[in-house]
Amino acid sequence: MSRTPASPAEIAPIAASLLTRTEELATRMARRIRAEVTYYGGMAQVPFEELTDSCRRNCELVLRQLVDGHSADMTPAQETGRERARHGTPLAELLHAYRVGSEVLWSEIAAEARTAQGLTADTIMSLASWWVNGGLAASATDAYREEASELVLQRERERSAMVEALFTGLLTDRTTLWEAADVLGLPTTGPYVVVAAEVPAPGREALPGIEARLLAEQLRSAWRLLPDLHVGVVAVQRPGAEEAVLRALQRTHASRVGVSPSYHGLRETPRALRLARLALTGVRGRTRGVARFDDSPAALLVAAAPDEAGRIARVVFERVLQLPAVERDRLLETLECWFAAAGSAADAAVLLYCHRNTVRYRLNRLEELTGRSLRDPRAVADLAVALHALRLAPAE
User: Fold this and answer.
1) Which of 121, 127, 147, 191 has the most CB atoms around its CB within 10 Å?
2) Which tens digit of pLDDT belongs to each residue from 288-324?
3) Helices and strands counted in the chain (H then E)
4) In what helix (H) or strand (E) does residue 257 lie, and over which residues does it extend?
5) In what order do the strands lie in the sheet with 221-225?
6) Would you say 241 and 251 are in contact if contact means Cβ atoms under 8 Å apart?
7) Which residues contact 321 (CB under 8 A, 6 or more apart)?
8) Residue 162 near residue 269 (C-beta atoms within 8 A)
9) How far is Cα 253 from Cα 249, in angstroms, rounded to an integer?
10) Which residues, in sequence order, are CB contacts of 395 under 8 Å at separation 6+?
């Protein structure tokens, strides 16, 4: 950083004279700033007394520096920069205020200089050079940026901690949940969905830029990076919001992504995260894809007791699972398409690109191997639960 040039010695008497008028100068500066700088005028967020005091301190700093002829302590300017950053003052408005204040002070020095003896053009040029490089606005700007950066980091740390508490279930009190929603920029009522995406490597986001993409769709969200997952809560209040989330996720080309069913209270977020994790099994065996958790009663029962559901699947499909892999997968896929087609062999055949008689043959084979008739509602329920469990936790 270049050294600030010394102020011209001939200016010292003028500065000393003006030091006796800092209260008057500060008031004039504050009025000009209020009149010319939008942020400080009208319904100003900076009280007039506070602005006047800041102007006075900065006046004294500059004038004492001119009197002493050496660099001054820039603490007042730095404090102003930090204070304005904490209050969210736009940096451009802060610098505009400094320009207006400098103009007032420069005009007073120039007016005094015109009546002084022994001042030359070189002295005025030297003063101008010192003024430009004096560092008052620069010090405020540097302090502003440092404070703003720290505030951003602090807010990110707070958001990260709040999201983690939300996902782990540490937030249960209603008031605390409202406060969390406020910090995270989420609405206090749902519906919401949880998204869980497998990370490409520890510490790397699976969905970089996803928060901005969703915001462009008028969808607010909050995200957290875990060792194995990039997880987020997304508010889906507007019509078509869930479909918009799925489209945004599909455009990211992430590896594998699971999406929970929608839910209405932030207190349910840990459970929704578990369902989003389970939804990831829907894209198992594929390099990438987005899967939404099936929120049917059978799927929810399986999610509620995965170990017991897995045992049921092994019992129901014991003989099917003993078949060669190709035949086993073909029979299970046929059953899945039959369920998707609401029990219609003809519609299932369309999904499978085969003849409906082929579907009927495979279903008869499944009935034979499982000992359960697809005409018995209780047996159909058993097969539905077992199939969900098998998809969520494939047998070894």
Assistant:
1) 127
2) 778 787 655 666 666 666 677 778 788 888 898 888 9
3) 18, 5
4) strand 256-259
5) 221-225, 229-235, 192-198, 256-259, 289-292
6) no
7) 314, 328, 395
8) no
9) 7
10) 310, 313, 314, 317, 321
